[in-house]
Specification:
Number of domains of chain B: 1
Helix content of chain B: over 70%
Strand order of the largest sheet of chain B: 1-2
Bound molecules: protoporphyrin IX containing FE
Largest sheet of chain A: 8 strands, antiparallel, barrel
Number of domains of chain A: 1
CATH topology of chain A: Lipocalin
Shape of chain B: elongated
Number of helices of chain A: 2
Structural class of chain A: mainly beta
CATH superfamily of chain A: Lipid/polyisoprenoid-binding, YceI-like
Largest sheet of chain B: 2 strands, antiparallel
CATH topology of chain B: Fumarate Reductase Cytochrome B subunit
Oligomer: heterodimer
Shape of chain A: elongated
Number of strands of chain A: 13
Helix content of chain A: 10-25%
Structural class of chain B: mainly alpha
Order of helices and strands of chain B: HHHEEHH
Radius of gyration of chain B: 18 Å
Number of helices of chain B: 5
Radius of gyration of chain A: 21 Å
CATH class of chain B: Mainly Alpha
Chain lengths: 189, 178
């Protein structure tokens, strides 16, 4: 009797249409993560040359989890002197904190294809809750793009300490924006 | 004294531009060495704002000066041999050239280093070139060599002015003064 109930249950489960969650993996050659501090109110454009992103959507194609790993050591402000300067202990302190990470599992819908990812940014030893707005657009059957822009305050992460902390020459607000291309790496039940 | 030059006299516009530029150059040279010697700090950045702003001012005054020079006459060189006249002219040409080369090479250095410029904390200048490490080094090299050429020519220039004034006792320096 038990075995029949079990088989019936199994049959019941399998009789649902196949719905699948999807794992998406960023395609590093076509993905960009930019940042722009400001000097006397003028933007200095830079980028993190190495980062990777995984993203999961549920059976409805809705966001499930987002994970971004950033090599802070790859920060590039377009000039070797500047790059050396921002690696120093009072800025990114890359020898102690070479990596940053953003993890979100809490999403809300904010419009057509637009979402807000609330999560934790771990940067220079600090963990802060931030909200990252992004737009998700299908490019083909198994590729999609994620774009967005946000402003972070560098003092929240003690980036630019001491005499830099006033934000007088180098502004406190840092613009971060991204254009990431994903490919669907696997789908599962 | 009129605004314009005559064949004997410098007018007040040329005089003012000459001495204003001279003061700026005498400030610029120590300011540049000082700015470079500082380690990266807000002070260094502020000193560089002054250095870049005054340097661009030199360039703007120079444009005015050359326009005025092309438009008007200039006084004849006094009491000198033909060779000395040519030397004086060559030195003046070189000084004008350096007043172009220094600001432009400085501006390129700054742009290639991806550092934007805001004159006197007020007026943003466009970047002349995009970020480029090799070009930045090259432009900084040109800037530095120009500084040493400038110092050498200035020693000659000021020496010659003093020579006219103290030894030849002619009015070369007097007619450049007010
Ligand atoms: C104490 C410093 C200086 C003295 C005593 C001085 C003196 C003079 C004198 C007397 C003249 C007139 C020459 C003539 O009438 O034939 C002259 C012309 C000139 N000076 Fe100076 N000068 C000084 C600094 C400078 C500086 C720093 C610069 C620029 C970097 C400069 C650039 C020139 C130029 C380009 C001319 C030629 C003007 C023309 O022909 O258009 N001088 N200077
Ligand atoms: C007009 C006359 C100028 C003079 C006499 C002058 C002089 C100097 C001197 C003496 C130095 C230190 C030695 C060196 O490394 O070259 C220097 C450095 C520098 N100047 Fe100027 N400068 C002038 C204009 C400018 C302008 C207009 C700019 C930028 C818009 C500028 C940007 C710089 C920079 C970025 C450095 C550091 C170079 C490096 O990284 O090695 N300068 N300048």
């Amino acid at each position: 009797m038990k075995i029949i109930r079990f088989l019936a249950g199994l049959f019941f489960l399998l009789s649902f249409p196949a719905v699948s969650a999807t794992d998406w993996q960023s395609d590093s050659a076509n993905s960009h993560l930019y940042f722009a501090p400001s000097y006397e109110g003028m933007a200095i454009n830079g980028a993190f040359k190495q980062f990777s992103t995984t993203y999961q959507t549920d059976s409805q194609g809705q966001p499930d989890s987002l994970r971004v790993n950033i090599a802070i050591t790859s920060a590039d402000l377009g000039n070797s002197d500047l790059n050396e300067a921002i690696g120093a202990i009072d800025w990114f302190n890359i020898s102690d904190f070479p990596q940053a990470q953003f993890i979100s599992e809490e999403f809300s819908h904010s419009g057509d294809g637009a979402f807000l990812a609330k999560g934790t940014l771990q940067l220079k030893g600090f963990k802060k809750t931030i909200t990252v707005p992004f737009r998700w657009q299908a490019l083909s059957e198994d590729s999609a793009s994620m774009t967005g822009e946000l402003i972070l305050s560098r003092n929240d992460f003690s980036i630019g300490t001491g005499e830099w902390a006033s934000g007088e020459q180098i502004g406190l607000a840092v613009k971060v924006w991204f254009d990431v291309v994903f490919t669907a790496s696997k789908t599962h039940l | 004294m009129g605004i314009g030059n005559t064949s004997q006299q410098w007018g007040w516009l040329s005089k003012t531009l000459h001495w204003l530029t001279a003061v700026l150059i005498f400030v610029q040279i120590p300011l540049g060495f000082y700015a470079e010697s500082l380690k990266l700090s807000p002070l260094k950045m502020d000193i560089f704002v002054w250095h870049k702003s005054l340097g661009i001012l030199v360039f703007l005054l120079l444009i005015l000066r050359l326009l005025w020079r092309i438009k008007g006459t200039i006084p004849k060189t006094v009491g000198a041999s033909l060779i000395q006249q040519y030397l004086a002219q060559a030195a003046h040409c070189l000084l004008y050239g350096l007043m172009v080369l220094l600001p432009i090479s400085g501006w390129i250095t700054s742009s290639a280093a991806n550092i934007p410029i805001k004159l006197f904390w007020l007026i943003p200048l466009p970047a002349l070139v995009g970020p480029d490490n090799a070009l930045k080094s090259l432009a900084a090299e040109v800037h530095e060599i120009s500084v040493f050429v400038l110092l050498a020519v200035l020693i000659l220039h000021i020496g010659a002015a003093l020579h006219h004034h103290l030894l030849l006792r002619d009015n070369t320096l007097k007619r450049m003064w007010f």
